[in-house]
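Notes continue from the previous slide.

Worked example: a multi-chain complex. Inputs as given:
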Amino acid sequence: MKMTPIQQELQKMGSRISVILLVIGVLLLGFDLWVHRHGETDLEDLLFFPALYGFAAFVMIVIVGIGLRKIVMRGEDYYDD
Amino acid sequence: MTDLTPGLLMILAAGAVPYLSHHVRQVFMLLAIAVSAISLTAGAGVHWVVPVFGQELILHHADNLTLPFGIIFHLAAALNVVYGWHEKRAMEHTAGLAYAGAAIAAVHAGDLITLFIWWEATAVTSVFLILASGTERANKAAMRYLLVQVASGVMLLAGAAFYWRETGAWAFSAMELGSLGTWLIFLAFGIKAAFPFLNGWLQDAYPEATVIGTVMLSAFTTKLAVYAFARGFAGTDYLIWIGATMTAFPVFFAVIENDLRRVLSYSLNNQLGFMIVAIGIGSELAINGAVAHAFAHIIYKALLFMSMGAVLHRVGTAKASELGGLYKSMPYTMVFCIIGAMSISAFPLFSGFVAKAVIMSALGYEGFVVIYMILLAASAGVLEHSGIKIPYFTFFGHDGGHKVKEAPVNMLIAMGIASALCIGIGVLPGVYYQILPYAMDYQPYDGSHVVGQLELLVFAMLAFVVLMRFGFYPPEIRSTVLNSDWFYRRLAPWVLKPIFSFGFAFVRALEAAVIDLTKAIFRLTRQASDHPISGPVIPGPAAIVQVLLLGMVLVVVYAALG
């Protein structure tokens, strides 16, 4: 299948943003080692806690969402009599 | 002049709106909002009392809690006028101005009866924003919306009546949950605040309103409820868990919802959760957090709804499955949408960050670790649906093949102002914190906060990248996602229909029996008069004779017994 110019551009953009995010992520982990973070709770003070928690929470939310589809998803015209 | 209830002038002005020509009308509405806002300068105190039936209605009461809501409601109303400037029909403008005015007047109600009046006024004015869509689907949604809103109002009135009997007063001030009256009031507020299982109306109705109608709706009703909780039930423990549930569960629905304006309605629900948690904590810092969050949220939520409205206006749909690749044709809308997305996701230097930080600190200080962690996870959820899903599937994702024009200039101006406010609040939190109810010395920007928050957000975004790359992220599907409105749209009819049809069948059978009996009596009477037991055969005199005979018997018996 041939891609439209917009699709090609989107793909390039996606790769670039992924790399940029990865670089920022690594930099932030570096900061975490350097700055002695103190959060509102003791748990938060653990090394890399926000990074791990953010990643895990995001994945959990998406997985639960996929599971929820099986229970609550209906056809688009479900309520149309 | 300043004694007049803020908002009242807007309601009165709304009456003239349909009779003015297009541009004159828009300018007139901005003027009405500006003049109404003058009343906000009246300062703390009771400014207008009207005696009714030996009681006093406090129509204008102001203090440090009403002021921030008064300011943001006026601001939102003005932004709506600019955003809807292109719309020539008067219906939404009339309803929108009256609706905003009613919400503002409600905030300044000093007693429960005045609150009830404006509470209902917000319902009956705002329903026209949904009706204005003009579709069968919207009409039905509007009626369901109105039923729920009026139910909330009736509960409030009943609650106020019981509360008056319990305490002998109906001033609207801090209440202690426990009596029937206070529970009814609590539930009435809870419906409008879209509590878990009472939330169906929000996701049902908001996305069915018109392009500008949804933006108007997003600002007032639910935040009026937040204000009402802050005044009436600050420090009520139940609110902490109710609020935490509200932050969490809409997040999962938002992942799988296809209509992006409905995704934003789930997101709205989740945001309300943060405010409700803070009100439940009830400390000065927490109430400041709730108000700060409500204020910032009204702006960035309106901004997000505006951007999706602009897309709907141009493309004709706001469904994720149909959209994509609009960054080329609607670049300004895309930038404004991303500013809204970054604000709601609480990126540092955006309004959501400086507002949410106050709530999170209040939670931390009070030692609510579990709730804190739920809210932190919910923050990743906010990033998922409002931060990523909304802009990604609209402007990027794949090429939806839509060749459209950029949004109308008035929409861009409104979105531009909202974006500037989002950034302004984020950059100058010190100025922003001054409008909050309590004075505080709070610094959101320190190394720990900023690094921690960025870590959370960036790694959540990386999770999205990973899920997309490996094909785990669920595709957008045209579908209906069942929500708590299912209970009254499907379950209740399913259970009640057989009961009602049995009841109706029984009543019909009873009716038929009565009719048969009546007919039989008539038939027998006629037969008796046609064929009398004794006397002549001619019907007329025969009947008279019988009546006379019976009459005599009656008199004799009466005399004998008497």
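Summary box: The CA atoms of residues 31 and 37 of chain A lie 9 Å apart. Chain A touches chain B through 53 residues (CB under 8 Å).
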